[in-house]
Amino acid sequence: MNYVINQGWAFYWGTSQWMPADIAEACEIADRLGMIRPVVEQPKYNIFDRPRVEYGFLDLYKKYKLGLTTYSPLGYGVLSGKYTKDIPEGSRFSTEFYNKMVPDFRDRVVKTFELQKIADELGCSLAQMAVAWCVSNPNASTVMLGARTRKQLDENLEAIRFVEKITPEIKARIDAAVDYKVQIPEKEALASVRARHL
Question: Structure pTM?
């Protein structure tokens, strides 16, 4: 990566879905060899999926100044509010692939009913609250949006107006609504593939 950066083809480099130990090792190797270490990790992060961001990377934020470019703030669309009645034809969860990726999909949909009540009190949509919740994490340098339409993009961008409303009290209510319990970060499926090649 140093070569790419030294050529001016990139300013920085980062990782995507790496385990905390792998990122720490990459930083240590870079420091030892006088190279540029990764400055950002790209993890999945949303109200339902958060152990790695909130617990797994804690030491890395401080020790290496690691930033995050998070993705899936709407939990593959579950937090968009579009799954409250039926699964729309052509949506992600109308395919077997996503149903296998998120086996507790239906349980998550039920939990969005309580989340919607909180969003209503804040004066925003469920999607806007979910994005604002992600942005409110000081370790999230960037929150990537996956809007399919201009209307969805406009709605998601409006979330910035609600970040200040995501107070510790609101976060506690969100945690209660989804029955959040601290979990040990699970190993990503791609981690074993990466380990074979490093």
Answer: 0.83
